[in-house]
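Async update (no meeting this week)

Hi team, since we skipped the sync, here's where things stand on the single-chain job. The sequence we agreed to prioritize is pasted below, unchanged from the tracker. I ran it this morning and attached the output directly underneath so nobody has to dig for it. Comments welcome in thread, and please keep replies under the output.
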Amino acid sequence: MRKVAIVSWATTQFVKDSKLNVFELGCEACAKILHSTDFDKQDLDAVLLSSCTTEQYSSTIISEMLGLSPKVSQRVDNLCNSGTNAVANAYSLIASEMCELALVVGAEKADSTGNKLLWDITRGSFMFPVHWAAIFAKAHMRKYGTTEEQMAMIAVKNRKNATKNPNALFRTAVTIEQVMNSRKVADPVKLLDCSAPCDGASAVLLASDRIAGRMTDNPVWIKGIGQKTTSASFANSTNDLTTIESAKSAARDAYEMSHLGPESIDVAEVHDAFTILEILAMEDLGFQEKGGKIRRNGGIKVNPRGGILGCGHPVGATGVAQVAEIASQLSGKAGGSQVSGCKHGLVHNLAAAGSSATVIIMGR
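Output:
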């Protein structure tokens, strides 16, 4: 089985209303890769689009707009977990030797009708993601004594990190007091505990070990992938409201495949669509014990680009942007948010109350 590397990546600026359609957004990110990476477009074997758009034949439309004629053209739709699903699919195409070179692009409009999971009647009248975030937060508070201030600290950290990211939706830091005093949306979750939908796109180029060295002097290797889907409905997503079972399962598989453990991870992109989710992620990934006791001495940097809270949440693009960020960190090209000396990174990407999860481990 071939080894697979990420050899190029690009992310657009995330904005509230770009005036571009989903195809134009996707092409903007892809064009940056095509213009900055030395390869023949005819050698590109696969184009995978991660998006919740309801537009049909969308990956093939983007391929034509870019002047590409790939062997494989697919759209991947798994709500907020779409991007890392697309990367996992591209990895599989290359590792199985069906393809040598694959372009993954995530693109989304904030108002995409496909962003909503209307099928799940178990949510009753509580249809918005903030409702299940509030349930997770209350359960964690009851069992482990987690406080609203601890949740607010996540927002403060990630919004501060986002000030160094020119592509972030939010470029202004916030204080604990501002988070605590922001409007309560669903007790105990406040407005500044929540991420914001937006427009944006991100793309990554994956290559086999046979050609990766020709395209870059510093490939970033995908070392482990874990995925798990427990359900589509909130009612069946977890038996314990203080953890995300799909993420724990995906993490176990990714660690096993990579022959690494949580102690080896230097930098992580975790799915912080709500502040409580970063707390759960730190526990589910083995970075800290339940209830907040840190297992390491601050050696891991989490969401240095600003996370979803700081960068915004263009649903289909989020997972791809997370992968692009870790590739950027491991190659030493993350600019003002660069984590010094990082060798291994991790991406943690969820969807729909954590009913599905992907964990990807990458290394220099």
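Quick observations from my side:
Residues 23 and 271 are 25 Å apart (CA to CA).
The chain has one domain: 4-115+196-363.
Reply here if anything looks off.
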